[in-house]
Automatic annotation (TrEMBL), chain A:
GO terms for cellular component: NADH dehydrogenase complex; plasma membrane. The keyword NAD applies. GO terms for biological process: respiratory electron transport chain. This is NADH-quinone oxidoreductase subunit C/D.
TrEMBL record, chain B:
The gene is nuoH. It is found in: Cell membrane; Membrane. InterPro entries: NADH_UbQ_OxRdtase_su1/FPO, NADH_UbQ_OxRdtase_su1_CS. It comes from the Bacteria. GO terms for cellular component: plasma membrane. It catalyses: a quinone + NADH + 5 H(+)(in) = a quinol + NAD(+) + 4 H(+)(out). NDH-1 is composed of 14 different subunits. Subunits NuoA, H, J, K, L, M, N constitute the membrane sector of the complex. This is NADH-quinone oxidoreductase subunit H. One of its GO terms (molecular function) is quinone binding. It is a multi-pass membrane protein.
Length: 597, 340
């Protein structure tokens, strides 16, 4: 197996690690080599909260954002030399936007805590990062790891009466591994009973001595909930006193599926995470696998990847634009936006063969080359769209009712956005020009000329304007792809490229064997860990893959932007009115598949 | 045989007059209901036209049969009464919604010879029945015993009450100019002095806004704001009871268009009506159609303001505007009468 990926050992060359060693002592940490080169340190459970607090508040250019918090069931993992013994690992990934923007020092740091025992305990990080709340609930729900001191440790993805913790290795992965499902009267009654709404269970009060509060259950079936999303509102008239979002109705166990699919056959599942993002979901996944495998992707494949990703950014933003205006009561724009989306999908279909979920990127390249005449279709589309956007600008975006409905509604500033892990348009609307395509160019974005639109007030209107402007920038990027499309192969010449290049299979036996094994079993990816982050349609999306040297992933962690954005809702919307909540929900731009996975 | 019948009618002129009036009334009401139902088709086709799509075009010529199909469907739907509602009020509300709208139609002077009733207090009666109309939605929202319906009912009550205040005031300018509350007299007065849209432009603006609010059409459809309150006050309604609310809304549009035409645009009057009296109805119908279509255009183009913003616009802009209009008109009328 080729193993040319750089393996960096975090150590004294990194000033954050020097700082941590100086403060907590070198013996408190165990460094780990990872394929993605991200500084990774193992920390003792009793010290984790202090280390996190120090990294958030104590270091120069602090790590203000808890980017991800997840866990790994280590009990069946074979390749874990030099790592502390553990049954479970909890992984924290911190992000310093300041470091990223100034490109000084490592913008990310990954901390791991080794845990022993069946249902281990660990202190909660909610005291340091407020958004650890949902992440810890998710880890408890899916792994059974208990966070001591968590304000409300209850299930978040699965129904309250679910038995077991699905991401543990002993939990069944397929329906056929369970006993047949039987719904008898008793079970039905108990399930119904569990559905009853008791404000206390949700951390809300029923009322005071003098009054009962009115609770309004918005969703999971509501025209503006954008999918199976539920939010319970405590109202005073139409004013929202408090609210609790409830997610999990769209949970399909995508991360668990990753452990049962070959590296190759998992690609179509990624399309359905952010189902409006199409091939842009493939990108972080295949890039992470390529990092593990050490594949360098040829320039043409990279440029086509960028072009198609930007097409999906446009289709996703168009849908956002249409539904946003529909939610504030304008019924026509959504139809115009859908007409434009159709035109984009016509191009996507001609190139990839599918419309919404092409699953078109491959490990090491693309499924096929661009078809003949693709340039004419792409050119037609990028000539069409800017004219329409100008029209929307006049007809809808400058409409005074739209402005008065959304200006200064559901506003938050940059610091709040970072506290809640908000990225993408929601962060840029606060005035922070943070776009991963600029700060950490991947896939060749460094070769493109485009701007990062930002807002000023961080309100619903800014989030709308920022995304409309991003469509214009995407058109610019596509224009540059069109003008400068490199020639050359659309797949890497590498043994782990899947499906492998077939030219020489019938000429020499070695190539034939490799091809046969890869197509029948799928590629065997070398053991290691890598995560790749991209600027997806809705914010930062990353895949954190752990390979145990087999044909399947050992652990697939999908960090999605929408999950973080929904957790932020109560802190933003308290004290505003129901119509403001609707405008806010519309301005977040989320899909529930991206939240629940 | 025929002679005896004719002679009998000739011998009882009062009865004959009453019979003819009843037939006219029934014809007008039927035409109104049919036109209202047909407006559903018109709305869907026009929205389709403005939104780059077709709209219903399958049943009958231009999809005109769609309305019939919809009506057949809605009549045969199960008449479902949710178990948690207040039955009597729940059933009463849609009947009120439709019935009151139709009742108001009695006041509309269609042509010089057609019209159901000719009240001397027509304008007042119109305002009074429009005031009652709020009960339909309020009761519907309340009796549904559902939170979305309740919030919708709450909104509609506040909205209608505040917008009715200046709807009446907006019309008083006309009453002063015409010197009568009678709608027919107002139309006749316009035939002589010109349409009241010119002297009463601000009255027209505020009246139309209030009228949209009272029939809760976009942009003032907050009581049934789909994206916020599911379906608002009629969330729990289905089948024909929902159909009554639905058609009632379209009757409301036809009615508001007809009243606006009668009050501000000279009703049936138009070029050629004096020499060809049969032109009266076409003029009236065309004018109404223009208004009906503009209500649809409003719906296609405008978003929905927030509830408190709409209330503020009513009390802080429209009410003062209509009061100033009233005072101005009064001054003009007084000055003119002194001059004469």
């Amino acid at each position: 197996m080729a193993d040319d990926a750089p393996l960096s050992v975090p150590g004294l060359e990194n000033e954050v690690i020097r700082d941590l060693y100086a403060r907590f002592g070198e013996s408190a940490f165990v460094p780990q080599r990872t394929r993605d080169g991200m500084p990774t340190l193992w920390v003792r459970a009793e010290q984790i909260v202090d280390v996190l607090r120090h990294l958030k508040n104590g270091v120069a250019k602090p790590y203000k954002m808890l980017y991800d918090l997840t866990a790994v069931d280590e009990r069946l993992r074979k390749h874990r030399q030099d790592l502390p013994a553990a049954d479970f690992t909890v992984v924290y990934q911190l992000l310093s936007i300041e470091r990223d923007m100034t490109r000084s020092g490592s913008p990310d740091i990954r901390l791991k805590v080794a845990l022993k025992g069946e249902y281990p305990h660990l202190p909660t990080a909610t005291t340091v990062y407020e958004n650890a709340n949902w992440y810890e609930r998710e880890v408890w729900d899916l792994f059974g790891i208990v966070f001591d001191g968590h304000p409300s440790l209850r299930r978040i993805m699965l129904p309250p009466r679910w038995v077991g913790h699905p991401l543990r290795k002993e939990h069944a992965a397929r329906a056929t591994e369970f006993d047949p499902f039987v719904l008898d009267q008793m079970r039905q009654d108990l399930d119904q009973e569990a559905l009853l709404f008791k404000p206390e269970d949700w951390g809300m009060k029923k009322g005071t001595d003098n009054e009962d509060f009115m609770f309004l259950n918005l969703g999971p079936n509501h025209p503006s909930a954008h999918g199976a999303f539920r939010i319970v509102l405590q109202l005073d008239g139409e004013e929202i006193v408090d609210c609790v979002p409830d997610i999990g109705y769209h949970h399909r166990g995508a991360e668990k599926m990753g452990e049962r699919q070959s590296w190759h056959s998992y690609i179509p599942y990624t399309d359905r995470i952010d189902y409006l993002g199409g091939v842009m979901n493939n990108l972080p996944y295949v890039m992470a696998v390529e990092k593990l495998a050490g594949i360098t992707v040829p320039a043409r494949a990279q440029t086509v990847r960028i072009m198609m990703s930007e097409f999906f950014r446009i289709t996703s933003h168009l849908l956002f634009f249409g539904t946003f205006l529909q939610d504030v009561g304008a019924m026509s724009p959504v139809f115009f936006a859908f007409v434009d989306r159709q035109k984009a999908y016509d191009v996507i279909e001609a190139v990839t063969g599918f419309r919404m979920h092409p699953a078109w990127y491959r490990i090491g390249g693309l499924a096929h080359d661009l078809p003949q005449g693709w340039d004419r279709l792409v050119r037609e589309f990028i000539e069409h769209l800017p004219k329409r956007l100008d029209e929307y600008q006049k007809a809808a975006l400058e409409n005074s009712i739209v402005v008065s409905r959304t200006r200064h509604v559901a506003a938050y500033d940059t610091a709040q956005a970072m506290e809640w892990g908000t990225t993408g348009g929601g962060l840029r609307a606060t005035g922070m020009a943070y776009d991963l395509r600029k700060t950490r160019p991947y896939c060749g974005y460094e070769n493109f000329d485009f701007e990062i639109p930002t807002g000023k007030y961080g309100d619903a209107y800014d989030r709308l304007i920022v995304r409309v402007e991003e469509m214009r920038q995407s058109v610019r990027i596509i224009q540059q792809c069109l003008d400068n499309m490199p020639s050359g192969p659309y797949k890497a010449d590498h043994p782990l490229t899947t499906p492998p290049p077939k030219d020489r299979t019938l000429k020499d036996i070695e190539t034939l064997i490799t091809h046969f094994l890869q197509v029948s079993w799928g590629p065997v990816i070398p053991a290691g860990e890598a995560s790749v982050m991209i600027e997806a349609t809705k914010g930062l999306n990353s895949y954190y893959l752990t390979s145990d040297g087999s044909t399947m992933s050992y652990r697939t962690r999908i960090r999605t932007p929408s999950f973080a954005h929904l957790q932020q809702i109560p802190s933003v919307i308290r004290g505003q009115m129901i119509p403001d909540l609707i405008a806010y929900i519309a301005s977040i731009d989320f899909v529930m598949a991206d939240v629940d996975r | 045989m025929l002679d005896t019948v004719v002679n009998w009618f000739a011998a009882h002129p009062q009865f004959t007059a009453a019979l003819i009036a009843s037939v006219k009334a029934i014809v007008i009401l039927l035409v109104t209901v049919v036109v209202a139902a047909w407006m559903i088709w018109l709305e869907r086709r026009l929205l389709g036209l403005w939104q780059d799509r077709y709209g219903p075009n399958r049943i009958g010529p231009f999809g005109l049969g769609q309305v019939i199909a919809d009506m057949v469907k809605i009549f045969f739907k199960e008449d479902w009464l949710p178990p948690f509602v207040d039955k009597f009020t729940f059933i009463l509300a849609p009947g009120l919604a439709m019935g009151l709208m139709l009742l108001m139609f009695a006041l509309v002077p269609v042509t010089p010879t057609w019209g159901v009733a000719d009240f001397n207090v027509g304008v007042l009666l119109f305002l009074a029945i429009a005031g009652l109309e709020v009960y339909a939605v309020m009761l519907g929202g309340w009796s549904s015993n559902s939170k979305y319906a309740l919030l919708g009912g709450l909104r509609v009550t506040a909205q209608t009450v505040s917008y009715e205040v200046f709807m009446g005031i907006a019309l008083m300018g006309i009453v002063m100019l015409a010197g009568s509350f009678n709608l027919r007299d107002i139309v006749v007065a316009q035939a002589e002095h010109g349409w009241y849209i010119v002297p009463q432009f601000f009255g027209f603006c505020t009246f139309v806004l209030a009228a949209i609010a009272v029939v809760h059409r976009t942009p003032f459809d907050l009581p049934e704001a789909e994206s916020e309150l599911a379906a608002g006050f009629h969330t729990e309604y289905s089948g024909m009871k929902f159909g009554m609310f639905f058609v009632g809304e379209y009757v409301g549009i036809v009615l508001v268009s007809a009243i606006t035409v009668a009050l501000f645009f000279g009703g049936w009057s138009g070029p050629g009506v004096d020499s060809h009296p049969w032109l009266a109805f076409p003029w009236f119908a065309i004018k109404c159609l223009v208004f009906m279509s503009s209500f649809i255009l409003l719906r296609a183009s405008l978003p929905r303001p927030r509830y408190d913003q709409m209330m503020a616009a009513g009390w802080k802009v429209c009410l003062p505007l209509s009061l100033i209009n009233l005072l101005g008109t009064a001054a003009v009328v007084v000055a003119r009468s002194h001059g004469a």
